[in-house]
Amino acid sequence: MKRRIIILGAGESGTGAALLAKAKGYDVFVSDFGIINEANKAKLVQAEIPFEEGKHTEELILNAHKIIKSPGIATSVEIVQKAFAKNIPLIDELEFASKYTKGKIIAITGTNGKSTTTMLTYHILKEAGLSVGLGGNIGKSMAGQLISQDYDWWVLECSSFQIDGFVDFKPHIALLLNITPDHLDRYDYKVENYVASKFSLFKNQDKADYALLYTEDNLIKANLAKHQFASKLLELKFEDIPYEGAYANPSGIIINLNEQRHTFSQDLLTIKGKHNQTNAMASILTSKLAKIKNERIADSLPKFKSIQHRLESVGSIHGIEFINDSKATNVDAVYYALDAFTRPIIWIVGGVDKGNDYSQLDVVSTNVKAIICLGKDNTKIKEHFKNRCPIIEETQSMEEAVKMGYKLSKDREIVLLSPACASFDLYKNYEDRGNQFRLAFQLLEREIELKKLSQSC
Q: Is the pTM of this model over 0.90?
């Protein structure tokens, strides 16, 4: 009898897992409590995989040998609790997919910066000519890709929700960039549970593997001694020079590895700010562990383009630069964004508040010229910053927010969308919010150009 695998959630990871499970001979059933998008539905139909949407039918799910759960589904959901009660193993797509690769896995986590570090690491390895795949919390499903192609290396962005579904998942190189309180509703509102989730990325490593951690991060530093590492620990630092690992100073990023020192100029980096130096340290150190030569790394760095919606420049008008940082959905991410610029900032902020502590952003008094609140309820933001910022405006329209930002700024200043909040009050997701920012900029640019043309006629 075929072993039965149930897939909960038919998004990118769930559909990929279903297709791989079918290809490996499992009896597969897909259940999504929401509506499955047409593209994924077509893939399931073509593969002759039965599915349901808009419900979870217990008798079709709780007879599983194993359940692959979408990371977006909380463990508190009723069907998940019933699966736990029946001792049915619940795993993540990456846990399942990792059993079908012969390649080495680079797994990257952290509250912030993991997408940039994942993309930069993938970029360096690909530019160096390595056989490398990209997956996890970014790009295409690893499981789905493995149906037709394996790679020598896999660079995977791993959220805490995905890590919670790891049992035997064993990365050759595992990176922990930072930890700041986020998604605590999924961790019983206990930061120690969230920290434990992040650190568990290293649990299956052995002495042939590597653990890279930014050890000057407060929560990492406070919890480092509580965790045992069977792998080789390499540190990322600014204040001290690690015996082995990476550090940064004004002259460059320095890698200490196997009693050798490798230096890469800061001028090579296209990503700016201290937090991006941490990301670059992690990516470059990982690349050296993958045996990539310094020249190849140095050649690849200036070619890297920042990921969409993360400190992404969408253009300039009259010297005023418009930056899309829609992916900054928590206070810590916004802190990094504000810290990345020395020029005056007109800051567009707001959305669905996740219990934000805005006192962490009192840096606004030094470099934020004006605040534009973009959300249905801006009370908390206005109240906190009313005595810290001389100009606070309010709108529920991205087009109006961008125009307002332009009017409030002048040459060499920045209009920064860095919301600190989720997007669901006005937008589908942070990508939609960022795309609307880009579109509003383009409309403003066209309007200014047309006005200039009419005046010259």
A: no
Element (H, E) at 368: strand 368-374
C-alpha 198/C-alpha 211 separation (Å) is 12
In CATH terms, the fold of domain 94-303 is: UDP-N-acetylmuramoyl-L-alanine:D-glutamate ligase (3.40.1190)
Measured CA to CA, the distance from residue 148 to residue 156 in angstroms comes to 18
Q: Dump pLDDT digits (tens) for 322-375.
A: 999 998 888 888 988 887 777 899 999 999 887 888 888 876 667 899 999 998
The answer to whether domain 312-456 has CATH 3.40.50.300 is no
Cα 327–330–335 angle (5° rounding)? 95
Structure tokens at 124: 């360096």
Whats the size of the chain, residue-wise?
457
Given the candidates 3.40.50.1980, 3.40.50.10840, 3.40.50.720, 3.40.50.2300, the CATH classification of the domain at 4-91 is 3.40.50.720
**CA trace torsion 179, 184, 190, 195 (10° rounding):** -30
Q: Give the Cα-Cα-Cα angle 92, 95, 100 (nearest 5 degrees).
A: 135
Numbered ranges of CATH 3.40.1190.10 in the chain: 94-303
Residues belonging to the binding site are: 110-116
What is the torsional sign of CA 320, 323, 329, 334?
A: negative
Q: Which residue has the tokens 């964004």?
A: 337
How far is 208 from 230, CA to CA, in rounded Å?
9
Q: Which helix (H) or strand (E) covers residue 256, if one does?
A: strand 252-257
Q: Which residues are annotated binding-site positions for ATP? A: 110-116
In terms of Cβ atoms closer than 10 Å to its own Cβ (0-12, 13-18, 19+), residue 366 is exposed
What is the per-residue pLDDT across 264-322, written as a single tens digit (0 to 9) for each? 999 999 887 788 899 999 999 999 999 999 999 999 999 998 778 888 888 889 889 99
Residue type, 15: T
Query: Which residue matches tokens 């700016």?
Result: 272
Q: CB count, 10 Å around CB of 343?
A: 14
Is residue 317 helix, strand or coil?
A: strand
